[in-house]
User: Fold these one by one.
Assistant:
Number 1:
Amino acid sequence: MVAEDLLLITGARRLVRLWALYGRMDLLFFARGPHTALPWYLSEVVVALAAVTATFLLAERFDDIGTWTRPQVYFLLGYALLVHGLIETFFSYNIAFISRRIGRGQLDHMFIEPLPLWMILLAEGFAPVGATSSLLPGVGLLLWAASQLHLAVGVAWWGLFLVNVVASMAVVLAFAFAWGSLAFWAPRAAEELNSSTYELSHQLAPFPLDGLSGIALASLVTVVPVGLVAWYPSRILLGLEAPPWAPALLPAAALAFVALATWIFRRGLRNYGRTGSTRYSDSGHRR
Amino acid sequence: MALRAYVKTAAMSAADVGENPLFLMDFALRLLRVLVLLALWRTLFAGREAPGVMPLATVLTYTVVAEVFSQQLAVSTTLSVAFWEGTLVLRFLRPMGLVRQFAAEMSGRWALHFALFSVPLVVAAPLLGVDPRPASPAAGALFVISLCLAVLVGLAIEVLFGAITVALEQPVWLVERARVAIATLLSGSLLPLALYPWGIGDVFSWLPFAAMAWAPLAIYTGTGQPLPRLGSQVLWAVVLWPLADWLWRANREKLVGYGG
């Protein structure tokens, strides 16, 4: 038991050291000068804001969207941006687009590092500077919405908020890893698969989904869980879901999605162990 | 003879799409987007007077037709891919015009997507409670002209942004992603510009991006007068093509860095 605790503590310390290292490298990229940093940052801001602007404009024009008041819609948009920003913070550099790393044969680069794979996946995508492009607007929008909604936020609410944000991130990543793992079996065909899964969660997350029919809505919280990225957790945090068990649904779903994604990813890894990457010819060219 | 070469290129490009069955994932995304938007409009318009010039039925038709012609209303060639892979030099070696090569490949991809997704979506539209027909036969005829102009303007913008990427020596996907994000908002391919608040839709409707999507879709749904929209499309095509051509030629030397 003591040995396990020690392992956990040393593992956590190592992870923090790696985050510091990757965070410094991210900062160095932006410190190369305005010619590199400005276009990159502005482009990321534009992409992040564009995803929520459509819903924002509709809320401005119509005052409300169904049962959602304008500040509640802002909360939804802020939440969606926050989840997106946190994923960008911790899982950039194609960790959240794992099909690219698998499809391009770049897992080999990870296997030669003297670290367990889970730690590499947690550390290598850390980009705290670049990700502020979506994180800051998300936090700003959330604070603005919260001030207009006069939310009574206590310790319990903050706890619920934290659990929901982590669960939403887990759902997005699990969905990406589950589909992205197809690249183990079809590296060329599935290399860009996570572009589609990313588009799905990025484009559809900022919409209130209340008006959808039963089957369509059920699909969007199970088969294609974009409803769990921002819509459902926002309903929970804003008190729009009445049943007492409702707050437990998202964490439970996140656990199920993570378990499924882990199972598929590990099966893919086993296959990879047998076949390796076929993307590069002996002379080093990509097929 | 020359035309045959482009038709053959288009056919090869169409076959290329079929090699990767995962393009069905894109169809799923597009269908979901339509379903979400249709539900959103119904929620928004429920118990409300028709705001401005577009009643609910018109907005629903607009949404479905925008998705049916989404590739034509948001023109995208494989220029960025050629930059990224450094294969532009191979294009220069072919006995075909550069832009025409890309356009031929693009139209090949369109054909397959149109047959497998757009046509079924039009057929299924009544099941979704949407009338996909144009506002009138005249609107349908003018839409065809407007769509051709939209593709022309879209191609000009594609070449222009390609040239800007090279001129500013920026990463390919950086410019591409920003352009797509801006175009989605300003072109009206996602939301009708008439529904934008504070009158900004009126301003956007005169910008070049609106000539790519808003103009043909507004004509199709009978929103506003068609002639000013067609006029603005012609104007942008006349302005943008010489500009794109000049910027492309002015930066040809820099293409070496992108494999040209």
Number 2:
Amino acid sequence: MSASDEVWILGIQMTKFGKHPDLDTVDLAARATTGALSDAGVTMADIGVLTAGNLMNASASIGQQLQKQIGQTGIPVYNVANACATGATALRTAIMAVKAGEVDYGLAVGVEKLSGAGLLGGGGTKKKDADTWTPAGRYGAVAPIDGRIGTETCPASLPRSARSMATSTVARASSCSPRSAKKTTLIPP
Amino acid sequence: MAGQIPLVDYLVLDGDEPHLVAQECTNCGARFFDRRNACANCFATDFKTVPIATEGTVRAFTIVAFAAPGIPTPFVAAVVDCGGTQVRANLVNVEPDAEHVHDGMKVRLATQSIGTDSEGTEAIGFGFEPVG
């Protein structure tokens, strides 16, 4: 791999905007990511770098959470937080890795659940049965499990959804070395 | 027993035979305890639920001295090898100190009450206790 200015978007996928009350942030990111990989015709095994943009839970390591769900291949992850430019910065970070010749394929994903953000924070629904055991989360837990089932780094709790969407893009470099004279064509959506 | 609910959905309260279950990838056999989007090993998306052995060996542990409010300390956080499946759990019914806990000790699944809610439903958690 060598540095190249020829970087192509191979695949892209966006989930629909919606409340998605039964999907967590990783679900949305996973749908967009697997969709983009499929659109690009590659798998996680081909990806050399993952960038993941998320602002509401910026320190929750969304990139690593995503890898744990759709493919832990040992590649570096950049979790990106850059205000309203978070998604664009995640994409740019992946593009830079490809452009630098560090990887052939990069994957950028952005995801957000906007519950409680800004003016969406007012009101809210009353929890009924707040004092009965109610399974929630990916383990169907009725109570916090940290300290009861070993210990774990506590992921930030995921807020109820208001509006959420995720976008994922696969970018790759074309190789211009004498070894392989292949040309990549950009296929418009 | 009136109204019991497991602490987590991968604990099955099967009368006298409580046990854990895992999601096993039908393509490569990797096992997971959480709700899955795909297999982290081979990226496939088809899983089947399989029971996990209730006896195992402590692979690693740490004695935790500080925890969230309501969690008694010290407690032993451990990884138990149950017939090839690695299970994260607390060691229970054992003194939480280095004299009583060691790598390689044989343990078995044990259940314990977490508490009762306003409708009388008892939440049941699990841990691993020494065998013999």
